[in-house]
Amino acid sequence: MAKIIFNREIDKNIYYLKIAGNYQGLMGQFYMLRGWTTCHPVLGRPFSIFDLDEQAISFIYRVIGEGTQLLSRLRKDDEIELYGPYGRGFPQAKGKIALVGGGVGLAPLYLAARELRKQRSVEAIHTYLGFQENAILIDLFDKVSHRLAIDIGGYISKMVDVNSYDYVFACGPEEMMKAIVEQKKSERPHIFLSLEKRMGCGIGACLSCTCQTSSGNKLTCKEGPVFPGEEIYFE
Amino acid sequence: MAKIIFNREIDKNIYYLKIAGNYQGLMGQFYMLRGWTTCHPVLGRPFSIFDLDEQAISFIYRVIGEGTQLLSRLRKDDEIELYGPYGRGFPQAKGKIALVGGGVGLAPLYLAARELRKQRSVEAIHTYLGFQENAILIDLFDKVSHRLAIDIGGYISKMVDVNSYDYVFACGPEEMMKAIVEQKKSERPHIFLSLEKRMGCGIGACLSCTCQTSSGNKLTCKEGPVFPGEEIYFE
Amino acid sequence: MNNMLQVQFGNITFQNPVIAASGTFSPDFEQHFDLSRLGGICSKGLTLYPRAGNKGIRIWETASGIMNSVGLENKGVDLFIQQDLPILKKLKDKGVRIIINVSGSTEEEYLRAVELFSKEEVDIIELNISCPNIKGGGMLFGMTSYAARELVRQVRKITSLPLVIKLTPNADNIVKIAQCCEEEGADGLSLVNTFNAMAIDVKKRKPAFNNVYAGLSGPAIKPIALRMVHEVCQKVKIPVIGIGGITNGRDALEFVMAGATCLQVGTANFMNPFSCARIIEDIENFLREEGIESLEEIRGIL
Amino acid sequence: MNNMLQVQFGNITFQNPVIAASGTFSPDFEQHFDLSRLGGICSKGLTLYPRAGNKGIRIWETASGIMNSVGLENKGVDLFIQQDLPILKKLKDKGVRIIINVSGSTEEEYLRAVELFSKEEVDIIELNISCPNIKGGGMLFGMTSYAARELVRQVRKITSLPLVIKLTPNADNIVKIAQCCEEEGADGLSLVNTFNAMAIDVKKRKPAFNNVYAGLSGPAIKPIALRMVHEVCQKVKIPVIGIGGITNGRDALEFVMAGATCLQVGTANFMNPFSCARIIEDIENFLREEGIESLEEIRGIL
Ligand SMILES: Cc1cc2nc3c(=O)[nH]c(=O)nc-3n(C[C@H](O)[C@H](O)[C@H](O)COP(=O)(O)OP(=O)(O)OC[C@H]3O[C@@H](n4cnc5c(N)ncnc54)[C@H](O)[C@@H]3O)c2cc1C
Ligand SMILES: Cc1cc2nc3c(=O)[nH]c(=O)nc-3n(C[C@H](O)[C@H](O)[C@H](O)COP(=O)(O)OP(=O)(O)OC[C@H]3O[C@@H](n4cnc5c(N)ncnc54)[C@H](O)[C@@H]3O)c2cc1C
Ligand SMILES: Cc1cc2nc3c(=O)[nH]c(=O)nc-3n(C[C@H](O)[C@H](O)[C@H](O)COP(=O)(O)O)c2cc1C
Ligand SMILES: Cc1cc2nc3c(=O)[nH]c(=O)nc-3n(C[C@H](O)[C@H](O)[C@H](O)COP(=O)(O)O)c2cc1C
Ligand code: FES
Ligand code: FES
Description:
The complex is a heterotetramer, with 2 copies of chain A (235 residues) and 2 copies of chain C (302 residues). By secondary structure, chain A is mostly beta strands. Chain A is 15% helix and 37% strand. Chain A has 2 domains: 2-86, Translation factors (Elongation Factor Tu (Ef-tu), domain 3), CATH 2.40.30; 95-231, Rossmann fold (3-Layer(aba) Sandwich). Chain A is globular, with a radius of gyration of 17 Å. In chain C, the strands form 4 sheets. Chain C has an 8-stranded parallel beta barrel, surrounded by 6 helices. Chain C has a 4-stranded antiparallel β-sheet with strand order 5-6-14-11, with no helix packed on it. Classes of the chains: A mainly beta (235), C alpha/beta (302). Chains in contact: A-B, A-D, B-C, C-D. Bound molecules: flavin-adenine dinucleotide (2 copies), flavin mononucleotide (2 copies) and FE2/S2 (inorganic) cluster (2 copies).
């Protein structure tokens, strides 16, 4: 059980949740969150690490169904359970890097930007964020990016010249991620995408999150959620 | 859905819950409370009306199991569902009246005292409250009683001279209520007890709260929870 | 009430498919909503003679479910007809279908009870064949196709009222029993009744219930009940009343898509006394939003 | 680990009765607790040849339960023995019992898979007889006593490893099947596997799962599973592993009082990765508080 520092609605149905504690985790990894003590809902909910330091870990989430609704009711000092860190996050990268987020898909990119900035071999971090109505967390992303581009109501993937980057990390709606991969024309850009799949355990036991990739069935929770863009079959 | 005005821990594991709204109810009646939106726990929890006016209704409850634990986590402005008023409460009374409460069994007696005081035919209201460790709500009861007796750690039933009253209303542990009934030596005291039984519906449909009385099977929720003392078979 | 929700159950028209389930409802719910909005009301389980019901606790909570062991406490058919039926008849006059749930411990008891109701203005007899059968050597009428077939055959002979058989999910093979009931002339089926289940008070080292086993109902059982309704609907032509954990409009629509014509709402009435009314509204809203003109369009589409 | 929790399952001693259930656990849980504390680990369902498992979604939440339709995705016996068994053997060396869950779609497949494991250092073969049987005409090995009896007889002939049969709650008559397995020389039984269930996505007007039905597990099913374990324990002498919705020590103790010797914890591992460890602690605390010296004292007391 951990204590909530805040759980703030930062836009309609989008929450910024900060939990006290010295949690581990790398960019692109996730935790299973459980903000209730009852046997229903049965499953924890997976959320990417938005940020963490020695005092706290935080998440950005959108209210979708019952689980996130229950989460959204939590307040300062309420207790919550979280299990992780799970999965394989984004790889180390160098050169010019684009981070592309659609909606709450921005969640794993902030930690990515923060981690990448610490590395010498990284020349530039350009962050592209697309929103439906309102932009959120712009100030935070601005501080950690060399350049920040925002789009509201359009297609953020169109703003990114994928082939001009050494690495592209993307997370968001499937169409967005697909559009990014389809732009790839050269060897240069290494594209990595963070996928969402229904999960039972989060830790590689239940095989409910299997996704088909060009290198066979993979467990999204354990071998992902971040995969090389070219491995993924979009439906 | 109603809004919580406060939900205060007034003693270890005992809460005073106040809910906004113009609710109906008579002394000894109860409501089914549901302080969660999920399908588990399935059943609402029955609680006697502690107090009500045109702005609010309130309850006093002890944390026992999962349902009351969930209730205890609610705070100001949280929402709660309540259904009622249910049951037959205390009857109209006159003359000298004793109100005897053990622990949170005091809950229905406050409204009883308030209602009875309004009646001309009532000569005196003597309230007897027994507690295991700490006395609670003394000030409130003091204001509505002509005399107030408190016992901590002993047997409150021993302090009551049952036969010297015209009416005795009691609510608390079974042994306490039994001891009250056994004291009765004359025709004079009309004894009424508020019983607790597991309930499904609270409204007379499921027959899960049937209790055996000297006048046959009775539904605790609909024909009770208040019964004449002499009708009840103690186990 | 909108025509959109009207359904045809054999020869009987329901103003909407939502029926308050046996043992979980009473006219006292009028305190909460206008009961004439219901599609139907099912009486509590009635036996020829009065029964005091079971001793010990009668209800126990489980994960998203409840177990009950009421033991068919009821005043017997005669008193019911005198005291309670008149109240139900008033609802009938307002368009609510009245279903009488009949139980018994012997074939004779069933037959005599059904006979008595056959003279009354009720819409449907629901034969509850999942209560203890003394004659059959402790087995239950609804547990095997053989016993079910025998009983339905006899009851069918003596009543011309629409006859719906309420099946138990504890049966050896619910599909086979359903088919037997159809063959014997049942007008419809309702399923499921409660699941045989157990709870133990580990502190006391005793079963929670005096009878050791008791019936599980509520949201917990919905996925199994839905599968059973779907299975049965594939195999019979008579209409089916879907029952089991229906709590909201979505649940109700699942049962319709699985093939049910009507629905019964039981435990949900305890979760919220407006459940039946809300479910009716939810269904109506869904149909409107999805541009569906009648439940026929989506019934049994899977 | 305290001796108090030690149980004897036939000839096999478990350091405690808590086994991580098939398909719900993996050595990766080491991230959360020391796996050598477990009584046993049950492998995921293995088939002779690799299987890719089912398409479409594989997990769906229900009221206090989950439905799964993984479809026995596994790497096949050979690769499992090469890659995964060595990891399990390390736990075996620390006292954890290793149970291999074997499935198949034909009798031959079962036999060849069991043969391969019979040469390995595993403690128990758990025969999963609730998966589709192509040979039997689409029926399931575990659905009827006849099919179950045949399979157990053949498997019994070819292995001297302790053989536990995992029963399905969807069977016609679980008690009868249990008795048949006992007669054919099974060393134990484990029950229950998941309940056949259905979920419909009403917006899409489609079943949630490609396979239409899927298996229900978790707290929701516990009361029914407990009843089945109790029923079976009344009728067989071989030891039983109780399974179904066990989430905490109280649940576990209910199964012991109903007659189970060991317990498997499945879905609860998803609710909380420490579940198995906590359940072991809870049981130990209960025994201490109640002054019970061993689980024998309370096993099957009801
Ligand atoms: C690795 C990973 C990281 C994620 N990170 C974030 C994040 O940072 N911020 C955020 O807002 N969302 C994130 N999601 C999506 C988030 O997990 C779902 O929105 C959430 O589980 C919905 O739960 P619910 O109870 O509100 O919805 P319901 O639809 O009621 O949930 C029912 C079931 O479906 C599952 N489910 C529903 N939608 C999704 C989905 N999109 N992905 C996976 N499972 C789903 C739920 O977990 C639950 O088991 C992430 C998903 C994955 C797999
Ligand atoms: C008419 C009536 C009035 C009541 N008034 C009050 C009151 O004013 N203040 C107060 O603190 N308590 C009162 N109670 C008792 C209160 O309802 C229970 O303490 C409460 O239901 C416990 O719920 P739980 O989930 O915490 O406990 P659990 O033990 O987890 O509950 C499991 C189930 O058992 C039922 N149950 C458990 N204990 C009791 C009990 N003593 N009586 C009835 N059902 C029980 C629950 O309702 C639930 O259905 C009253 C009970 C009745 C019948
Ligand atoms: C308290 C209670 C009493 C019941 N009594 C009866 C009864 O008398 N006759 C009957 O056929 N079914 C009875 N049932 C079963 C319900 O009618 C219904 O079939 C079952 O509860 C499943 O539906 P649900 O999950 O919506 O409750 C009873 C159920 C409950 C919970
Ligand atoms: C995701 C998942 C996968 C499962 N895979 C198997 C399996 O491969 N073989 C098997 O015998 N049982 C399998 N089961 C069934 C469990 O072992 C267990 O019998 C069932 O889930 C009931 O227990 P529970 O309620 O504790 O989960 C699986 C269950 C789940 C939830
Ligand atoms: S979520 Fe269980 S294996 Fe991935
Ligand atoms: S609680 Fe349902 S009849 Fe009393």
